[in-house]
Amino acid sequence: MYRWISIISFLFIFGGIGLSCLLWPCKECRRNPLKMLVRLFTLIFIEQKLSPAEALRKLVYLLALLCFVILAITGFYPTLVLGEHISGYLLMIHATFAPILAVCLAILAVMWAANCRFAANDWPWLRRIIQRVTLAKNVDNEGTKSQICIGQRISFWLIIFLALPLILSIVMSMFPYFGTYWQKLLLSIHRYTALVFVLVVIVHTYLLIRTQIE
User: Fold this and answer.
1) Dihedral sign, Cα of residue 24, residue 59, residue 163, residue 82
2) CA 148, CA 62: separation in Å to the nearest integer?
3) Comparing C-alpha atoms, which of 151, 140, 60, 52 is closest to residue 108?
4) pLDDT for res 178
């Protein structure tokens, strides 16, 4: 059941991303695809114009992305390809990089929180409702200008929110205080949360790349 849910979910996400690229391609992709591929490759480098704090933030993000890729491969390869649970060397690699990702997420939550906060203009429909209900002429627009789109902000906070049950479920299962039923329940929570977490990270990464190349 979990295997087929995962396969369908990945097909849906990657299909949606592919359809988005076909319907709304970036200008550079249409004019010079090769140049765009080179530009995508250069996104992993640290620009000299970045401040020390921005460079550190990007390094932490790249490290988190590397750990995410390793964890996603080691976690989903046995399930999707082999049809079995993670074990052996894959489990050892998975357990090694998991705490590194947890630390990186904690650092990114602190360093990106200010840039990913929501503002009044992020929800124009909600602002109009508030104006009608309160009969206010204007709503404060302070801090509405940002290079980060609303989709990135939502996916960022979803990643931080999903990281809590993702980490706690597997940590709690390591303690001998829970019976067989609770062990299975915690494992199921970890697996399904990991699936949603991976899907959200894929969407966030796609939106981040789109904002960088457009």
Assistant:
1) positive
2) 18
3) 60
4) 79
The answer to whether residues 62 and 44 touch, using CB atoms and an 8 Å cutoff, is yes
pLDDT number for residue 86? 87
Two tokens, residue 91: 């489990």
Residues in the chain: 214
Measured N-to-C along each axis, helices 52-77 and 180-213 cross at an angle, to the nearest 10 degrees, of 130
Q: Of 106, 113, 109, nearest to 167 (Cα)?
A: 106
Mean pLDDT by 10 residues, the chain (214 residues): 90 91 72 65 69 83 93 91 86 94 93 76 59 55 55 89 93 84 90 95 89 72
**Which pair of structure tokens corresponds to residue 72?**
């996603």
Token couple for 43: 């996104």
What pLDDT is recorded for position 93? 94
Alpha carbon 154 to chain centroid, angstroms:
10
Let me know the angle formed at the C-alpha of 69 by 118 and 91, rounded to the nearest 5 degrees. Answer: 120
Instruction: Please name the residues in contact with 63: beta carbons below 8 A apart, sequence gap of 6 or more.
Output: 100, 104
pLDDT at 106: 93
